[in-house]
Every structure is written in C-alpha cells, then in structure tokens.
Amino acid sequence: MHQMKTIEYDLIVIGTGSAMNIVEPFLNRNPDAKVAVIDKDEPGGICLTRDCIPTKILMYPAELIKEIERSKNLE
After folding, report:
1. H or E element that contains 12
2. I need a labelling partner for 17 at 20 to 30 A (CA). Which of 6, 44, 68, 72 fits?
3. Across-strand partners of 35?
C-alpha cells in the first residue's frame, strides 16, 4: 500500500481572487513561510477573469452617460 506524504504549510489559501490580498502581507512578514494556494480555475479569480470587474468596467461609463443625460432635464 502507498503511504501519503504529509506536507505542512504556514498558510493555505483557497482561491486566487481577493484571498491573495492576505498572502502578500503574510509573506512580507514571514518571507520563509510555506504557502499553498488552491484554485480550480486559472489564477485571478472569477471576479477578475469573468464577472464583476469586467462588468463594472463596462457599466460605470454607461451609468455616467445616463446621469449626464438625466441632468439635461434639470433647470
């Protein structure tokens, strides 16, 4: 029977999105720390690569344009 090797980490992070905000300060304070990052997708997290950040980049200018158009009705 094959025996599993046990590896110990100082920090285990699930996801490469906003959780990475924790990793950098941790490594700055503990440069020799062992860190494991687990993600089922490509690095960057869903917000960055597929969803809310690209959507916000497109939505914000559209909202500004709508607001400018509405302001034309104010006197």
Report:
1. strand 11-14
2. 6
3. 11
